[in-house]
Design goal:
Layout (H helix, E strand, L loop, with lengths): L2 E5 L7 H5 L1 H14 E6 L3 H7 L5 H13 L2 E4 L12 H9 L5 E3 L18 E3 L8 H11 L8 H14 L3 E5 L3 H10 L5 H10 L5 E8 L9 H10 L5 H6 E9 L1 H7 L3 E5 L3 E5 L16 E5 L5 H9 L10
Parallel strand pairs: 1-2, 1-4, 2-3, 4-5, 6-7, 7-8
Antiparallel strand pairs: 6-9, 9-10, 10-11
Helix pairs in contact: 2-4
């Protein structure tokens, strides 16, 4: 869902950013909600200095963005984009870091436009940033609902993969998670948690996972000992778990707390984004997909923090961090 993009210090020489407030706000909004900035560590100081070229109100917003928004370090052979020979030279370098969008100063835009539309890489400037195909796709993927019969592999690829790749801490709140995991495991099926870990392995990263589920679903119950046995004797011995998961913890709460505070099922990625899914981890179970509501939002637009805090204070005795 995230668009990996790149910009350098020269973009802040652009008159659009220096004279038109909306040009700054447009890039900053899309970065916060849909983007991950790939930046050159050796070039960071120069970028932060160049930010001061925009009016004070907005250079403060840029400084806040560099401190708080999603970003990742990359090491391109040339930090300044105008030093690349042409579009293809720039594309090949940026694609090697999975960067789909380059935001370049308008003064150089014409030199880096492809002869034909390229599906893997685009170059935009502050003047036409709103025409970015990659950011437009990210916006669509963050809100597009899951349809009956959709392919979970494509859903992960289009909605989750990039989000997970740039995260380290994942927290899942789903009242039915423990119940469904134990039911599937008892029936000899791969569980939703196992499939998620398989998907996470494709990112090459290491993750901490925290899960909250209910222990007393009406007419059904979750045995903490059985859950602990599944986690310790099965899940935590799986090759992909050992390769990908640094730490995991499963906590159980009374169902009433989910009804009162956590009816929505959520997956958070770091402190940045929250995925809201109608049936939660159910979409990762070994069965045909049903229609689901779906949205990816920045965490501050959700109730995740309050819900997480409430559940954390009401974990069942002996059912904490299983």
């Amino acid at each position: 869902m995230l668009t990996n993009f790149y910009l350098d210090s020269e973009v802040f020489d652009d008159a659009q950013l220096q004279e038109i407030p909306q040009a700054n706000l447009s890039i900053l909004y899309d970065w916060q909600h849909y983007g991950c900035l790939g930046y050159c560590n050796k070039h960071e100081e120069e970028i932060l200095h160049s930010i001061k070229k925009v009016v004070p109100k907005y250079h403060i917003k840029w400084q806040t963005a560099f401190a708080q928004f999603k970003k990742t370090k990359i090491t391109p052979r040339k930090a300044i984009m105008s030093e690349y020979d042409d579009f293809l030279d720039l594309k090949n370098e940026m694609n090697s870091y999975d960067v789909q969008t380059a935001v370049i100063s308008s003064a150089f835009l014409d030199y880096y436009l492809p002869e034909h539309k390229d599906m893997l890489f685009e170059v935009v400037s502050p003047s036409n940033f709103g025409e970015s195909v990659s950011f437009s796709k990210s916006k669509t993927m963050s809100l597009e609902q899951i349809k009956k019969g959709d392919d979970i592999n494509l859903i992960w690829k289009n909605k989750f993969h990039c989000l997970a790749k740039h995260s380290k801490h994942i927290t899942i709140i789903d009242r039915y998670s423990a119940l469904n995991i134990l039911e599937d495991h008892a029936n000899g099926k791969k569980t939703s948690l196992e499939l998620i870990i398989d998907f996470l392995t494709t990112t090459g990263g290491k993750f901490d996972i925290t899960i909250y589920g209910a222990c007393d679903i009406p007419k059904k119950s979750v045995n903490a000992t059985t859950l602990k046995n599944y986690l310790d004797n099965h899940l935590r011995k799986q090759p992909n778990y050992l390769k990908t998961i640094s730490n995991s913890g499963f906590s159980l709460c009374k169902n009433k707390f989910f009804g009162e505070e956590a009816h929505d099922r959520m997956i958070s990625f770091d402190e940045s984004f929250v995925v809201e899914i109608g049936s939660g981890l159910d979409i990762f179970r070994d069965k045909p997909l049903a229609s689901n509501t779906f949205a990816i939002k920045i965490k501050t637009l959700t109730c995740f923090t309050e819900i997480y805090s409430k559940l954390s204070m009401n974990r069942e005795l002996g059912c904490t961090n299983l």
